[in-house]
From TrEMBL, chain A:
The lineage of its organism: Eukaryota, Metazoa, Spiralia, Gnathifera, Rotifera. Keywords: Cytoplasm, Nucleus, Signalosome. It is found in: Cytoplasm; Nucleus. Pfam families: JAB, MitMem_reg. GO terms for cellular component: COP9 signalosome; cytoplasm. Belongs to the peptidase M67A family. CSN6 subfamily. CDD domains: MPN_CSN6 (cd08063). Its main location: cytoplasm. It comes from Adineta steineri. This is COP9 signalosome complex subunit 6.
UniProtKB/TrEMBL annotation, chain B:
InterPro entries: COP9_N, CSN3, PCI_dom, WH_DNA-bd_sf. Residues 197-367 form the PCI domain. GO terms for biological process: ubiquitin-dependent protein catabolic process. Keywords: Coiled coil, Cytoplasm, Nucleus, Signalosome. The keyword Ligase does not apply. This is COP9 signalosome complex subunit 3. The keyword Nucleus applies. GO terms for cellular component: COP9 signalosome; cytoplasm. Pfam families: COP9_hel_rpt, PCI. It is found in: Cytoplasm; Nucleus.
């Protein structure tokens, strides 16, 4: 593979090369989906594309690393510009806490690196600063870069290994990876692929195709109806000759239509039934409200009685409320309920 | 005199410092005796307190004047109180509401004796406006206002306060007496009966009767008498004479005192005739006169006739006017026709009169409950229910957080860790 160099800035401290790597890498599609989702969400919510960063979790077995899951970084004083002067710091407290929580649930997942979503001209000083912040957690973290703008036939994912050269210079060496999936992931990806993939000829996905079909159908119906309307108007004005068969068919078509807004005799019956049903529904709602109110009132009165029960006359049934040993309380006292003053 | 000066200086100081709760403490007894003992100097003291900054001190002085055995110039005092209410600051007054209420009580009493009720109404009206914290709060001044309104038959100021339902009572630092509550509902009921809104009047009287009580108040007894009459006039005759939730002792007192004259009326309405009714009324006329319910009794007679006619609709579909007059024991067919026409206009009955052969045909109710106004009404009612439910929930929340309740529920169960089943 060809070696690629870093961005146009003259003085960089990183280079990217590909070559023999020290680890073999497997990648789960979940990682890719998470990263893509993170990027899309941020882009939609904040209306400009800021680079997003997050952590990679995976299992390290000797020289084989398997990237399983991701979560987002919490950044302090994150800047929205991508100039080389920006400093982005990660909230290390949050990071360590989160890793602890994850360790409790998945004991075999470790912090293996971080991801970013950027194009080919990426922001190297930021990456270096990340590296220095994250090196306390993992001596050789991996960098996964998702390219949002590149167009190619392969996945726009690049994974880099970090090598510290001579103590200060940080090298990012691209390594190759393979994809492995679990069953659950396979189902998810299948679904996504089926409905959102664009075929080569059009720019739209299948979902929008379906909607477009319906739209076209309705438009066609409307145009046909306009034609019929024109015809009937013309016959009425005498411009065209009258064809009884055709008029009969149009008449029967009209009678099949719903009767809600017509002004002929059907309207009266419909209106009456509609009104009756409307007031029935409103009445039911009122009944529900009243019941709710009575239930609240009942609760209130019960509590009221609990407080004031020593004013109960001894001639009332049971004398007191009969607190049985289970702590249960009878809801009904004697012949005396406090009236409400509403 | 020295202590008085000292006292005045002290309260001035507290006012300028803005320590209102301390000031309230200083102005309530026994310290306020300084003012009452030196009542002759009170005018000069009042002059030193400009409003609205010194509202509390002014209020205390006015209160001292009121407490004195006799007020030298009552009209001057009235104007003083009026200007005070109009220019004082409400937040200071909130600390000493009971003083203002007592002033109002004394004013009311005095005006009632002198038959000058009309003068006091604006003062009391403004006092209520000033003192109440929210539209649904009841003060003891309300009962005074209603009393004055009844005395001079000018109901509008009272109605503005009667329309809003009461959801709270201002404690007035412990001086709010249950008598004021009962009186305000009793007078309110009377006012509604005067303007012929009998439903709401019956509701108010019912509130008086069913107020939880360990001892029966005379107000409740009087309220019961009017309750019976108003309930009969409004046309809805309940199966029980009293709501089941009246306190036991109120029930017993009413049974012993009023059953012959008033509770009997219920039975008469259901199964009696007009002559029996008249006879009964005549027998107890003295009692009614003593209770000053004669006016209501006359209206009850009307209601009795309407009720009899309505009972006829349950048995007949058509009836001749003559037959109607006979059954209801009216004097003539003309009178029967008059009553019928009134009732049809009021919507109490659905009938048509055929003049040619003097037949009356009774119809069913033409209301089918499907018009738009019915829908609007239903939605309105639903809104009100939801409002009331919100308030109830708030009350319930307060009570379940109250100390007494938590203590009681902890006491009840010997096993503190067992989950309690509270519905």
């Amino acid at each position: 593979m060809a070696a690629t160099t870093a961005s146009a800035a003259a003085a960089t401290t990183t280079t990217t090369t590909t070559g023999k790597s020290s680890v073999t890498l497997s990648l789960h599609p979940l990682v890719i989906m998470n990263v893509a989702e993170h990027h899309t969400r941020v882009r939609v919510q904040t209306a400009h594309a800021t680079p997003v960063y997050g952590a990679l979790l995976g299992k390290i077995k000797g020289r084989h690393v398997e990237l399983c899951n991701t979560f987002e970084f919490k950044l302090t004083n994150a800047s929205t510009t991508t100039t080389t002067n920006s400093t982005v710091t990660i909230d290390m407290d949050f990071l360590t806490k989160k890793l602890e929580l994850i360790r409790q649930v998945h004991p075999d997942l470790d912090f293996t690196g971080w991801y970013t979503v950027e194009s080919k001209d990426w922001n190297s000083p930021v990456m270096s600063s990340f590296y220095s912040q994250l090196s306390s957690l993992n001596e050789s973290p991996l960098l996964l870069r998702l390219d949002p703008v590149g167009v190619s036939n392969e996945l726009p994912i690049h994974v880099y290994e970090t090598i510290v050269d001579l103590g200060t210079k940080i090298d990012f060496i691209e390594i190759s990876y393979t994809l492995i999936t679990e069953e659950a992931e396979r189902i998810g990806i299948d679904h996504v692929a089926r409905y959102s993939v664009t075929d080569g000829t059009s720019d739209t996905s299948i979902v929008s195709d379906q909607i477009a079909i319906q739209y076209n159908a309705i438009r066609l119906l409307y145009q046909r109806m306009l034609v019929l309307l024109e015809y009937v108007r013309a016959v009425k004005q005498g411009q065209l000759e009258r064809n009884d068969d055709l008029l009969r068919e149009i008449g029967s078509l009209c009678q099949r239509l719903p009767i809600i807004n017509t002004d002929d005799n059907n309207n009266q019956m419909f209106r009456e039934d509609f009104d009756i049903q409307q007031s029935d529904v409103a009445l039911l709602a009122l009944l529900a409200c009243c019941t709710q109110e009575i239930s609240t009132l009942n609760d209130y009165l019960n509590k009221f009685q609990v407080i004031h029960d020593k004013q109960q006359h001894s001639s009332g049934p049971g004398g007191s409320f009969g607190y049985s040993s289970g702590g249960r309380r009878m809801a009904r006292g004697g012949a005396y309920f406090p009236a409400s003053f509403v | 005199m020295a202590t008085l000066d000292q006292f005045v200086v002290n309260i001035r100081q507290l006012t300028t410092d803005g320590k209102f709760s301390d000031l309230a403490q200083a102005l309530s007894s026994p310290n306020v005796d300084h003012l009452t003992k030196n009542i002759q100097h009170i005018d000069s003291i009042i002059a030193t307190f400009p409003l609205p900054e010194y509202s509390m001190c002014m209020l205390a002085c006015l209160h001292a004047v009121v407490k004195a055995p006799n007020i030298p110039d009552f009209d001057l005092f009235l104007t003083q109180v009026d200007t005070f209410i109009q220019t004082s600051s409400a937040e200071q007054i909130y600390y000493l509401p009971q003083y203002l209420c007592e002033i109002c009580h004394v004013i009311t009493e005095r005006l009632r004796k002198e038959n000058r009720a009309r003068v006091g109404i604006p003062i009391l009206y403004r006092a209520i406006e000033l003192l109440r914290r929210e539209p649904g709060q009841l003060l003891s001044i309300h009962s005074d206002l209603y009393q004055l309104c009844l005395l001079c038959q000018w109901f509008e100021p009272a109605l503005t306060y009667l329309e809003t339902d009461i959801i709270d009572i201002n404690r007035e630092n412990g001086k709010f007496d249950v008598k004021h509550l009962l009186l305000s509902y009793y007078y309110g009921g009377m006012i509604y009966a005067c303007i012929k809104q009998f439903d709401r009047a019956a509701n108010f009287f019912e509130n008086v009767i069913t107020a939880p009580a360990t001892a029966t108040s005379a107000i409740a007894v009087e309220a019961y008498k009017k309750y019976v009459l108003v309930k009969l006039i409004s046309g809805t005759i309940p199966t029980n004479h009293l709501p089941t939730y009246t306190s036991r002792n109120v029930q017993q007192t009413i049974k012993s005192l009023c059953s012959t004259q008033y509770t009997e009326l219920f039975n008469l309405f259901n199964n009696g005739t007009l002559t029996q009714f008249d006879e009964f009324v005549n027998r107890h006329r003295d009692q009614y006169a003593r209770d000053r319910n004669l006016g209501l009794i006359k209206q009850t007679r009307n209601a009795f006739i309407c009720n009899s006619i309505q009972q006829l609709t349950k048995t007949f579909l058509t009836v001749s006017l003559k037959d109607l007059a006979n059954r209801v024991q009216l004097q003539s067919t003309n009178e029967a026709e008059k009553y019928l026409i009134d009732m049809i206009e009021n919507g109490q009955i659905f009938a048509s009169i055929n003049k040619k052969d003097g037949m009356v045909i009774f119809h069913g109710s033409p209301e089918r409950f499907d018009a738009n106004n019915m829908l609007a009404k239903l939605q309105d009612e639903t809104e009100k229910r939801m409002q009331a439910e919100k308030q109830l929930k708030e009350l319930e929340r307060q009570i379940s957080l109250s100390k007494a309740y938590i203590q009681r529920t902890q006491q009840s169960s010997p096993y503190h860790d067992r989950p309690k089943i509270l519905n």
